[in-house]
């Protein structure tokens, strides 16, 4: 049986707003195991991204328990959660968030540098990852010189830089056209096939359909779970 | 890539903003540097002038500044009395009056005449010719020579206007034996040096030889000699160079220090606001990037360090540029201030001291750190998930 990477037990997330508290996620229980591919879909505002952020330890539940790699996330200090994200989690964002002043290779090197990887090893790994995402020839290009699809592929390479156990992607094709989305989707398939657990939040039914498990959320709850 | 390299790239990425910050800091830093030079400049310059005269004590009749209070009524007698002290090496009397000089029908030159009596040492340095040796001889400064056309050996007419002299003192014809540089020469004014007896004659009061003050050279212990002089007669008040500088600081020079302090505070505050605003705007434009880096595992300390380095780089670059800029401005401002009437040519308002460099550096470093506090707090307290969500919604 595959090892559980992260598990959520009855987690909820409530935001204090001037007009009163808003419940973004309520009573969600799920776990993500090694090598699995899960898609979370649902209408806007249903709590998909909030759940993803909690699974990625950038947000903490207001209620319930979230355990990542055997550690109760709510007990971890900011520094420990940063280290956990750095070494075990990769993030891919809808808006890429590559640093515009760095080249593609340098963007991929950045998380490795933060993790203390040596310069030569960083460079080697960055080129290897850019090769993996099909952008070795773009290693010295800045984000402004790349297309949207290329930027997202570099962002995926960056997310994989420290060999994470879990890759989280929030609308990874949200800003891409259909053809480019297909390239990114294929790349994500490959990442998962190579052993990295993947959780994606998406509106795109085609992308969601590529996963082995689809969770559909509504009003902060998991309304339906389909396993294939 | 470390925080410094990232910050540097970040600055290069926004050249207009960076240039604005660096130029702003350079301008403010230059003003700051000048204020530091001004705060002590006049005092250091005055000290240098006093010490260049090889006398270390001034004796007056009151606690007024030399030349401002009542004269010592009998200068030679007072000098002779002081000279009897074993702690005193040499004493001269010094009296300064206004004068007009001309050579024949030449254009007149206006300025001052200094009468000196007593022992060794003069408040002037002979550049050409010889010093005054008798009562019919004078030395004049270059300006007086140029205006009147008088050279060595020429006879010039001196018309003194003395505070305690005759209403219409007679003009005196005296021979120029030397061209001299006077310690307290004033730009654009003539200076004439003669004996105290000649000046008394020129003032139309040949029997009385008062002195504005005595200049005394101690035997090596100015404080001890000054105490001996004070004890010698209640009519004589001695002050060493240090005490004279202290008096100047308390009276006239405090204004410069106050102005300098006020302007320094304003310039530092301006630099602080400038850098804080620039960094805050920059950080606010990059909140999504910062949140993404945090999500990728960058520590709070690391993203805060990025902001701090940006501040340090902007202030550092601006600070380095501010030094030559400040030096140029100091020369320019000094020349403007020296156009004020009756400012000695050798007196400077802006005087470089090595301490000014490190004080300047420390003030700018504190400014860089302080200016970065608010933007660093923004970054440190950034809610990662909320920012990422807002960026997408926005």
Describe this structure in words.
- The complex is a heterodimer of chains A (228) and B (394).
- Chain A is built from seven helices and ten strands.
- Chain A is α/β, with parallel strands linked by helices.
- In chain A, strand 4 (63-68) and strand 5 form a beta hairpin.
- Chain B has a six-stranded mixed beta barrel with strand order 2-3-8-5-7-6.
- The longest helix of chain B has 38 residues, at 15-52.
- At the A-B interface, helix 1, helix 2, strand 6 and helix 3 of A face helix 1, helix 9 and helix 12 of B.
Helix/strand layout:
The complex is a heterodimer of chains A (228) and B (394).
Chain A: E1 4-15, E2 22-33, E3 37-41, H1 48-55, E4 63-68, E5 71-72, H2 78-88, E6 89-92, H3 104-114, H4 119-132, H5 148-159, E7 166-170, H6 178-193, E8 197-201, H7 205-208, E9 213-218, E10 221-227
Parallel strand pairs in A: 3-8, 3-9, 6-7, 7-8
Antiparallel strand pairs in A: 1-2, 1-4, 4-5, 9-10
Chain B: H1 3-13, H2 15-52, E1 57-60, H3 75-83, E2 88-102, E3 109-118, E4 124-129, E5 137-140, H4 142-148, E6 155-161, E7 172-182, E8 190-195, H5 196-202, E9 213-218, H6 222-232, E10 237-240, H7 241-250, H8 254-285, H9 287-295, H10 300-337, H11 354-380, H12 384-393
Parallel strand pairs in B: 3-8, 5-7
Antiparallel strand pairs in B: 1-9, 1-10, 2-3, 2-6, 2-9, 4-7, 5-8, 6-7
């Amino acid at each position: 049986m595959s090892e559980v990477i992260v598990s959520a037990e009855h987690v909820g997330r409530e935001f204090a707003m001037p007009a009163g508290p808003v419940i973004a996620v309520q009573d969600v229980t799920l776990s993500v195991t090694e090598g699995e591919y899960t898609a979370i879909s649902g209408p806007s505002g249903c709590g998909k991204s909030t759940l993803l952020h909690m699974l990625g330890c950038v947000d903490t539940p207001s209620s319930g328990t979230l355990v990542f790699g055997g550690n109760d996330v709510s007990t971890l200090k900011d520094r420990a959660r940063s280290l956990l994200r750095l070494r075990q989690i990769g993030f891919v964002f809808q808006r890429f968030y590559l640093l515009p002043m760095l080249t593609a290779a340098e963007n991929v090197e950045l998380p490795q540098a933060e993790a203390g990887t040596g310069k030569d090893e960083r460079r080697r790994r960055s080129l290897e990852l850019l090769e993996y995402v099909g952008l070795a020839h773009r290693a010295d290009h800045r984000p402004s010189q790349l297309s949207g699809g290329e930027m997202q592929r570099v962002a995926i390479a960056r997310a994989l830089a420290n060999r994470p156990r879990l890759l989280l992607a929030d609308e990874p094709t949200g800003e891409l056209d259909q053809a480019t989305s297909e390239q990114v989707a294929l790349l994500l398939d490959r990442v998962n096939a190579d052993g990295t657990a993947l959780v994606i939040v998406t509106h795109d039914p085609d992308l969601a359909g590529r996963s082995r498990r689809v969770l559909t959320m509504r009003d902060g709850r998991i309304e339906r779970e389909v396993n294939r | 890539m470390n925080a410094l390299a990232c910050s540097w790239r970040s600055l290069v990425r926004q050249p207009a903003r960076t240039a604005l910050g660096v130029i702003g800091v350079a301008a403010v830093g230059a003003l700051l540097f000048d204020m530091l030079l001004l705060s002590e400049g006049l005092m250091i310059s005055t000290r240098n002038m006093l010490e260049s005269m090889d006398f270390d004590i001034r004796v007056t009749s009151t606690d007024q500044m030399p030349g401002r209070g009542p004269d010592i009524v009998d200068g030679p007698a007072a000098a002779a009395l002081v000279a009897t002290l074993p702690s005193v090496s040499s004493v001269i009397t010094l009296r300064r009056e206004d004068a007009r000089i001309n050579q024949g029908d030449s254009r007149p030159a206006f300025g001052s005449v200094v009468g000196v009596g007593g022992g060794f040492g003069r408040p002037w340095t002979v550049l050409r010719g010889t010093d005054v040796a008798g009562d019919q001889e004078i030395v004049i400064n270059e300006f007086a020579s140029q205006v009147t056309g008088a050279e060595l050996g020429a006879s010039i007419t001196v018309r003194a206007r003395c505070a305690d002299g005759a209403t219409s003192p007679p003009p005196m014809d005296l021979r120029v034996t030397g061209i001299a540089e006077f310690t307290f020469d004033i730009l654009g004014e003539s200076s004439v040096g003669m004996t105290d007896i000649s000046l008394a004659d020129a003032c139309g009061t040949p029997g009385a030889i008062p002195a504005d003050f005595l200049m005394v050279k101690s035997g090596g212990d100015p404080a001890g000699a000054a105490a001996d002089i004070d004890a010698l007669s209640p009519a004589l008040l001695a002050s060493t160079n240090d005490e004279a500088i202290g008096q100047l600081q308390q009276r006239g020079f405090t204004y410069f220090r106050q102005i300098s302090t006020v302007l320094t505070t304003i310039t530092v505050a301006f630099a602080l606001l400038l850098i804080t605003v620039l960094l805050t705007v920059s950080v606010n434009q990059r909140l999504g990037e910062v949140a993404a880096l945090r999500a990728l595992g960058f520590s709070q300390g690391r993203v805060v360090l990025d902001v701090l380095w940006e501040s340090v780089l902007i202030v550092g670059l601006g600070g380095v540029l501010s030094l030559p800029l400040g030096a140029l401005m100091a020369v320019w401002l000094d020349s403007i201030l020296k156009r004020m009437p009756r400012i000695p040519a050798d007196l400077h308002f802006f005087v470089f001291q090595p301490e000014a460099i490190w004080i300047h550096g420390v003030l700018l470093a504190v400014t860089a750190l302080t200016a970065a506090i608010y933007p660093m707090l923004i970054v440190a307290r950034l809610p990662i998930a909320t920012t990422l969500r807002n960026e997408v919604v926005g």
